[in-house]
Design brief:
Shape of chain B: globular
Distance between the termini of chain B: 57 Å
Number of domains of chain B: 2
Order of helices and strands of chain A: HHHHHEHEHEHEHEEEHEEHEHEEHHHH
CATH class of the largest domain in chain A: Alpha Beta
Number of helices of chain A: 16
Helix content of chain A: 25-40%
Strand content of chain B: 5-15%
Radius of gyration of chain A: 26 Å
Radius of gyration of chain B: 25 Å
Structural class of chain A: alpha/beta
Oligomer: heterodimer
Strand order of the largest sheet of chain A: 1-7-6-5-4-2-3
Largest interface: A-B, 208 and 209 residues
Largest sheet of chain B: 7 strands, mixed
Mean pLDDT of chain B: 97
Order of helices and strands of chain B: HHHHHEHEHEEHEEEEEHHEEHEHEH
């Protein structure tokens, strides 16, 4: 492979379809705008003497310049619509465009959250219908719809647990939360945000919670455990009901991180496993687009023991009408957000669920698990699986196969970029050395998976054949080569300034 | 099922390579008695059927564009240029993940950097993050940040703060056993917040324009807060107002929190929206959320990466500044495109038109018997005191096709002092005919 110095050969620095693009501030002018308005009347203002005198300092662009700016930027992104995006634990599945169309119907998209309830009956019906689907799929009696993302849903569940414990008069006593060492970082962060301290539960040799170790840590000061199931190693917690029983016997609650619910949706009801609270990432399991990092939505299902403590608002269907209850009852732990949650994600998720139906939801879970096991089976001769046996919806590998090659997980990931793939999740979960977590999802065809596996096998062989330099240099075909993250953190430049521009 | 590429032949061939006889062999770790239980749900449906069912629900709602519309209260009706929705639907933006692999995510990273620059400039602050979920959750995060900086455990809330912002903040702080002191509901912006700030106070949270539309001078409150070692958190729920009003940074705010929905993002029944969050450089490392920073690649070319992630949950876990992970990426993009189209020139014009529409609406309504405009100052939203219960009036007017505003009873249920209040918002979308329809319907209802 050649080093990528070809860009020297064009005057512009462009490489055909890869076009360099300046910041909007370097293109536009302070007096320019891409929006036409009628002139405002000349009248005295009523701004109380607090009108803005200073410059804002933001240039504008005409409409064609704006369009070109953002289209060029878009072409520097990888996306699920372009190819496999096997980020483990992130669930990058196909985003149906029907869902976009539904979300944009004026009755949903142009509806004010404080419109009189009589003018929003269809919106409340949609929330209630989605809630019913989520309750039925999880086998749980209640769901709080307002959490804005997965981590916000965790907060919702843990706040409900805290409120329940306080109501039992044990608020000062039960201060510890247990979470496996393989947990998402949001779990310990959430527990601390609720005023708990967090302790790690070790894993066993099979990649699952060590039940005996968990039992040792349980006691009268434990408020809850937070366990992801299927877990972040892509494995179903075999002892899940024993875990739930042990925690309940000790007087604590079982929070389940539902980030991986897509592996079992339509197959298993978490309510049957002893779960007390679980958030559902609509942007993972139910395909609402990730949008470059959000928005998400994290409705949180609650067991009967926690339902009374749910936040406001919630929807009640009574006498043929839908009512939005916005006033806190005595037990409610409060409010998580202004208004009622991520309506734009609710519309998309419900369109997805109705399209799949109960049969399609189960088939999607089965195909996701099948695809992951197929990748595992095809790769395991060259790339070392972290654990023995089948996986659920994601296959976890470690870096033993790269031993003494001079290639590390990150180099392997960057070489995948040159092959036209978004890399898998790397270095997570933390319990596995040099982790590579591959989640193909149900959206990949066998043909696409075969090419993907062939490409990874070829890379593994090349790494073992001593081509470390190629890996260290990768990527060479992406819009940028490796970026200096250390320099970015050492001397943070977090905004454009005219002075910096002048110095360029 | 149209979304699933595998067929039965593929599935059999794949199972064979895996070495499993049937699909449920792969689910062998699931206790057998809970696998494949029944679900009381309908089977799969075609595109047309789904569209009909959900279209019927949409048709039962009254969209803001359906007639005269004056509702604000933290979410505002504005015209969104067609370019915005076209660009955010591009696959490369819509179906990308968080930019964890920067070499193939420069599109997302560059617009995040542009967004941070825009938010910092609008708010008059030094650094902005790559967004929060929305304004209200940003408000709670700001209070938590002030608590970390000052190591104090008391927050003072202005009586002009949107009550749902107050509730979210209280829910978060009381969990940590902090003291939350809320000033009484302050319709006329006459509260003495300075007197409520003491040596225990971590922050004072003030909204401007406040929930009643009054424009607040933050400078004296900033001075009072700083004298006691407390921080001033400025909340702005109407981002367009930043085009017309002194910025929170100019008035001495330490943390700025905003709701960015007004730029590029529709009403959407309350979400998803985009939280704006900015602060002083010296508090950078206590900020929650993602930050995008400039750097160079191996060839020396400028590029962007997520940075300072040692503040964040995926690195710092239980010592993170916040548990936030997913934020409002695509809503950020919508905001950034709209703001790029406007530029400062367009934003100033837009703000002027909003103010003009509000002034005209207030003039028309204040001429009605039984209507009093409370505000001495306002931007595009103001509050009326009516001669009767505002919720009843709103319901009557809604039946006539006029969405009149937010009645006090909706935001302060059970508070008799709020019952007759009606919060009214206008914008560039408001026409003279809308104002006329509203004022005649209101006059008739009183």
């Amino acid at each position: 492979m050649t080093m990528n110095n070809q860009d020297q050969s064009t005057f512009t620095g462009n490489k055909a379809l890869q076009i360099e693009e300046a910041l909007s501030f370097e293109i536009g002018g302070f007096d320019r705008t891409g929006v036409d308005f009628p002139p405002a009347e000349d009248r005295p203002n009523r701004l109380g003497g607090l009108g803005r005198d200073s410059e804002i300092g933001l240039p504008g662009l005409s409409e064609p310049e704006t369009m070109r700016h953002f289209v060029r930027l878009s072409q520097k992104n990888y996306a699920i619509d372009m190819g496999p995006f096997p980020l483990g634990s992130c669930t990058m599945k196909h985003n149906p465009r029907l869902n976009e169309k539904i979300a944009r119907l004026p009755g949903f998209a142009d509806l004010h959250p404080l419109a009189p309830q009589a003018c929003a009956q269809g919106a409340l019906e949609l929330i209630d219908t989605l809630a019913h689907w989520l309750q039925e799929l999880t086998g749980m009696p209640a769901v709080a719809m307002s959490p804005k993302a997965g981590a916000h849903g965790e907060l919702c569940g843990m706040m409900a647990i805290k409120a329940a414990i306080v109501a039992r008069g044990e608020g000062d006593k039960r201060t510890r939360v247990l979470a496996p060492e393989s947990a998402h970082g949001t779990n310990p962060a959430t527990a601390v945000q609720c005023g708990f301290t967090v302790e790690e539960i070790p894993g066993d040799a099979t990649g699952r919670v060590d039940l005996a170790a968990l039992k040792e840590k349980l006691g009268e000061d434990v408020a809850a455990i937070m366990v992801t199931n299927p877990n972040t190693c892509g494995l179903f917690e075999r002892d899940i009901r024993a875990i739930a029983d042990a925690v309940h016997d000790a007087g604590g609650y079982f929070y389940c991180d539902g980030a991986n619910f897509n592996a079992i949706a339509g197959k298993v009801k978490p309510g049957d496993l002893g779960v007390d609270a679980m958030h559902i990432n609509l942007h993972k399991t139910f395909s609402t687009p990730h949008g470059g990092g959000g928005p998400g939505a994290g409705p949180t299902v609650l067991a009967a023991a926690l339902a009374d403590f749910a936040p406001v608002p919630y929807v009640v269907h009574r006498d043929g009408e839908y009512h939005l209850i916005e006033t806190e009852s005595a037990n409610s732990f409060g409010r998580l957000t202004a208004f009622h949650g991520q309506m734009g994600m609710f519309t998309r998720a419900l369109a997805y669920m109705m399209s799949h139906g109960k049969d399609g939801v189960a088939q999607a879970a089965e195909d996701a698990v099948l695809n992951a096991n197929y990748v595992l089976a095809r790769l395991k001769a060259e790339i070392t699986p972290a654990f023995d046996g089948y996986c659920m919806h994601e296959a976890l590998f470690d870096d033993r196969f790269l031993k003494d090659t001079g290639v590390e997980t990150i180099d392997f990931a960057k070489a995948m970029i040159d092959e036209g793939y978004h890399p898998m999740t790397m270095y997570f979960p933390l319990v596995v050395h040099g982790a590579m977590l591959i989640e193909p999802t149900e959206s990949e065809s066998k043909r696409e998976l075969d090419l993907f596996c062939d490409a990874l096998l070829s890379l593994a062989k090349r790494a073992k054949a001593g081509e470390a330099e190629t890996f260290k240099a990768a990527p060479v075909y992406a819009p940028r080569r490796r970026l200096d993250e250390t320099a970015a953190a050492r001397k943070p430049v977090l905004r454009w300034t005219p002075a910096a521009n002048a110095a360029r | 099922m149209r979304y699933l590429p595998l067929n039965d032949a593929d599935r059999s061939a794949m199972l064979k390579i895996i070495g499993a006889a049937k699909i449920d062999d792969l689910f062998c770790d699931v206790p057998g008695d809970v696998l494949n239980v029944g679900f009381d749900l309908p089977p799969h449906a075609g595109e047309l059927d789904v569209e009909r069912a959900l279209g019927a629900m949409a048709a039962k709602n009254r969209a803001a564009s359906d007639g005269p519309f004056f509702i604000g209260g933290g979410a505002y009706k504005h015209h969104i240029p067609a370019t915005v929705d076209h660009i955010i639907q591009r696959s490369e933006f819509l179906t990308a993940y968080t930019p964890y692999q920067p070499e193939i995510a420069q599109g997302t990273l560059q617009y995040l950097f542009e967004f941070q620059t825009q938010v910092a400039a609008l708010s008059g602050m030094e650094v902005a993050n790559a967004s929060m979920y929305d304004g209200s959750t940003g408000c709670a995060e700001a209070a938590l940040m002030a608590r970390r900086i000052t190591k104090r455990k008391k927050a003072v809330l202005s009586g002009g703060l949107h009550p749902q912002y107050g509730a979210v903040t209280r829910t978060n702080l009381e969990l940590l056993k902090d003291e939350v002191v809320a000033a009484p509901v302050d319709v006329s912006a006459s509260e003495d917040l300075a007197a409520m700030i003491d040596d225990e106070t971590a922050c004072v949270i003030v909204q401007t324009p406040d929930v009643f539309g009054n424009i607040r001078d933050l400078a004296p409150i900033a001075e009072a807060a700083h004298a006691k070692g407390a921080l001033l958190i400025a909340v702005v729920t109407e981002a367009v107002s930043l085009g017309a009003l002194k910025s929170p940074g100019e008035m001495g705010a330490d943390i700025f929190v905003g709701e960015g929905q007004s730029l590029g993002n529709g009403l959407g029944f309350g979400g998803p929206y985009v939280g704006l969050f900015a602060t002083r450089q010296k508090y950078l490392r206590q900020m929650p959320g993602r930050l995008c920073g400039e750097t160079t690649d191996a060839d020396g070319k400028r590029g962007f990466v997520l940075t300072l992630s040692t503040r964040e949950q995926h690195i710092r876990r239980d010592k993170a500044t916040s548990n936030i992970c997913t934020n409002s990426g695509l809503c950020v993009l919508a905001f950034t495109i709209h703001m790029t189209l406007l530029g400062q020139t367009g934003l100033r014009k837009l703000a002027a038109l909003n103010h003009e529409a509000a002034c005209k609406t207030a003039d028309a309504l204040s001429a009605i018997n039984g209507v009093e405009v409370i505000n001495k100052s306002y931007f595009n939203e103001f509050t009326l005191r009516l001669s009767k219960n505002a919720s009843d009036v709103v319901d009557v007017l809604a039946e006539q096709g006029v969405l009149a505003g937010v009645p006090g009873g909706r935001l302060w249920p059970g508070d008799p002092g709020a019952e007759n209040l009606l919060i009214v918002a206008a914008s560039e979308c408001t026409t003279d005919a809308d104002i006329k329809a509203f004022s005649s319907a209101l006059a008739e209802s009183l």
